[in-house]
Structures are given as C-alpha cells and as structure tokens.
C-alpha cells in the first residue's frame, strides 16, 4: 500500500557523491562507493537518500552544471551503477531523491551548444539572450558567484544570462518547450523508479518582465538580482504546471531550494493542498550570522544569537502549521558544519554535547528533517589555512573580488572568514575510520580531508554507544514511533522568547505533551519549568537528570 504523505514522518540523508566513498582509488567518491555504504545509511534509520547531482557535468560547480540530464558523470560511474544503487536502496527500504537543477544547465549541454549557434536556431530561445546596452551588459545584475550575470558571446553578438557561473547559463522558463523538456526528463527518471526531487534554486526560474536593473549599494560592483528573481511572477504557475505534468502522476516527494523565501510564499509552494511542492528549504536561519555590510554577504565571523535563531525557527513553525509543511535542516553542501557554527567544537566534550543539543532542537520540530553526510558523527569545519586548499569556485572568486579587486578586507581576515563560511567546509571527504584518507579513498583526494579524521570518524562512533551517531539514530526512531513529533502543535514555553541561553518549547497533541529543553551555552544554568511528576525523560545528552540544573549544552526531552 502507498501511504499518503509518507514523507511527513520521514527523515532524509543527503549524500554529496564526490565526498562520500571512493571505490576505485581515483580520489573521487562514486556510485559504487555509495551503494557499498547504503547499509550504514540504513543503520542510521533514515527513510530517504538525497543524492546531490550525479549527472554528466564538466564539474565547474561540482555537478550543479549539468551537461546531460539523462547520463551519469563518468567519474561517478555509469547508468548500471546507478540502477544497482537504486535497486539496493529499494531492497533496504530506502527511497532515492535526485537533485534537479533546472534554473540553468552547463554551457556544455547540447541545448546551449545549439542555442549559441545562431539567432534562428530552434534552441535559441531555450536560454535568455539579449542585446547589450551601449556596449554594456543588458542590465546591472551580478552573478551569485561574483562578476556580472551576463556573458557576451561573440558568435551572435548578444549576451546570455547566468545567475551563477558563466558556465551555468539560465534556462528560459518563458519558453514552453523548455518547460516540457524538463517535465519529460523528470518523468523519465520517475519511470526509472526514483522517489523524488530536491529542486535547486527552483524559486529563481521565473524572471521579471523586461529584466529591469536591480537596486545597487554604492560599494557593490553589481546589483544583487535576488529580490527580482526570487519568487517571480510566474513561479506558482510553473510549479503547478510541473506538478500536473510530473508529480501528480507519481508517488514522490519534492523539496524546493528557495533562497529569499518568506513564510507567506512558502505557504503557497508547500501548501498542504499539494498543488506545488511538498516543502521548501528556507534560508533565514542560515543568514543570521552574515556580515552587516551587504557587499560582504555571509563572509563574517559574527555568531548567531539563540534569540535570533529561536525567533526564526519559531516563526516558521507557527506560520506554516496546519497550512504547509516545513523542511528542517542545519547543514547541506553549501553551509558550514553546524557543530562549528552554532555549536562548539573547541573541545571533544563540547563538540559531542553541542552536536546532540542542536540535533535535539531540530529533530523535535514539525517538518521533515534533513541530515547532511557527516553531521551524524559531528564532523566539523575544515578551516583550511591557505587559499590553495580551497576548491569551491564561490570561495575562490569571493576571495579575489573582496581582497584583490575591492580591497574590502585584507587577505588574512578573508581567509579567516573562508574558514568559517566556505562551502568547502561541508565538502571534505566523509570520515569513515582512522586509516589513511579516513577510509574514503586510497588515492589523492579531490578535496583535502579534515585533519581531525583520526579523532572523528564513523568507526569510532559505531563503537561507542554514547556517540553522536547513536543519538541521531534514536532521534530518528522516536520520530518514527511517536506521531506527536510529526503532528504535535509547537509552542515556546511561556517567557522563553526572552531567555538568551535556553531554548524551551513544547509539542502538544491528543497523545500528550513533549517538553524540549536545550542549553545553547557552555554555562551551567538554573531554570524552572512545569514538569509533572509522572513525566518521563525520553532522550538526553547527559545521564542522571538534575532537574532545574541545566549543564553546558544539555538537551533533554520530557514526555507527559
Ligand atoms: O545553491 C544556491 C545558493 O547557493 C543560493 O544560496 C544562492 O547562492 C543565494 O541565493 C545567493 O543569495 C544551489 C546549490 O545548492 C549550490 O551548490 C549551487 O552552486 C547553486 O545552487 C547553483 O546551482
Ligand atoms: Ca572514484
């Protein structure tokens, strides 16, 4: 039988293929490697595996630049390897969620190769081509990866739009042929048996009529197009059309990556009526530690306060309740490691405690939790010391723009900020054991390992019953067993919105109450909450509960 809304009490595990497990010694993770590790993923207890892009790609942006949507990147294997992965996953009861990157393609995609040939090529209109204005780009937009959002192409004397790298031209969603080509491709994967899609920057696909200039601050080289391209005027029409053509004909789960999405917009995207997506990734809780100067974006060493973080999570919990569905995440391949970011990785004791504390805060909320590879063992930021250690184009471009071109920061400061926020922090190879290259590969790895793999690895966590791994395993099991974690109404404990140090909230349903208490600090605190005598502690990162005394990073959940 097919359970309706099965994704509501599911937990997703994200695999970044290049960094998970190398099977042939070339230093790059691959599909046979992932297949080999599915038993491990099953042991954690998750329901769905989201694979970051595995398609044929020149890998300018690690696969988010797709050259062929129906072929596997040769470094990762071939289609038989994929079929094997899918088969084994299904045998284990795991679902496979594919990454769908359709705001843009690679410039090596055959649609773009055709498109750039001539103004009357049948694929011309698959992309966004415009004449320049007075020998300059058609508008003032900047790319999210620095530089302008337009590239001049000699062959036809026009510019094409690229919100990301120049090798990632934006598709023209105004063209119905583009839309139906995408739906056909999605159906092709669905017919193959995959179980869902994570949709890359899906809320950027509808561009504004006339492509007007965006507002630009005086110290910015280009204007940020995000306010104009996020949640554009035709976005809901496009997603409803996609839903009609694809999702409604298959039993699948969808999550849209949606930067700059508000709760009001999210209620449309992920409405329980099911006309568009099942849920979106919102970004507000990832923006709380950004730089106050917009020209510096997220490059900063500011810490997010609990007050801001809690206010944001609470806003999303309450605004969507009963109307739409939340995704819940601390990490992904674009974000620094949460234990370094919102937790404390300065000592082994605090690393373990704070990783569990953050997991507790997230996993008792309403929504579908996403775990990024390595999060379940508390992997930390790599904090590379030299620019040469970085691979991510956004990190390298940003360094050159901010330090060399704009002189907004000196080199050492920018390096410090890269150590805190670079996407490479998430992308270091998975730490399986304490042997050479952490058991990830026998060859030279495409991205440096985190130096701490001898202390932090899967083997060690599996051998210790108090490990972060087993804590995550328990959180997932509780979600599967207790409907209240899926259905319960979320509320902050009275007055907790003013507590700078402790996060305390409840979930309530006809099954009773859950009270979640989490100390966000390394201080020992004293707090009194109303807890009936018959309350049972269902999970904690400390043994021997001490009641009103809440120890550093202590997290505990009572049921009554
Ligand atoms: O990320 C989109 C992304 O990084 C956004 O956060 C964007 O940079 C932001 O809106 C700017 O304010 C996705 C993928 O997750 C990422 O790995 C890709 O590099 C990117 O799209 C392009 O495909
Ligand atoms: Ca390999």
What coarse outline follows from CA principal-axis ratios?
globular
How large a portion of the residues is in β-strands, by DSSP E? 15-25%
CATH class of the largest domain: Alpha Beta
Structural class: alpha/beta
Q: Low-confidence parts, pLDDT < 50 over ≥5 residues? A: none
CATH architecture of the largest domain, by name, is Alpha-Beta Barrel
CATH superfamily of the largest domain: Glycosidases
Characterize the main sheet. Answer: 8 strands, parallel
Q: Find the count of extended strands (DSSP E, 2+ residues).
A: 20
Please give the domain count: 3
Mean pLDDT: 97
**Number of helices, where a helix is a run of at least 4 consecutive DSSP H or I residues:** 17
Descriptive overview:
It is globular and about 75 Å long. Helices cover 28% and strands 15% of the residues. It folds into 3 domains: 389 residues, Alpha-Beta Barrel (TIM Barrel), CATH 3.20.20; 52 residues, Oligo-1,6-glucosidase, domain 2 (Alpha-Beta Complex), CATH 3.90.400.10; 71 residues, Golgi alpha-mannosidase II (Immunoglobulin-like). It has 17 helices and 20 strands. The strands form 5 sheets. It has an 8-stranded parallel β-sheet with strand order 11-10-9-5-2-1-13-12, covered by helices on one side. It has a 5-stranded antiparallel β-sheet with strand order 14-15-16-20-18. A 3-stranded antiparallel β-sheet has the order 6-8-7, with no helix packed on it. A hairpin with a 2-residue loop joins β15 and β16. It is α/β, with parallel strands linked by helices and 560 residues long. α8 packs across α9. Bound molecules: 1-O-alpha-D-glucopyranosyl-D-fructose (TEU) and calcium ion (CA).
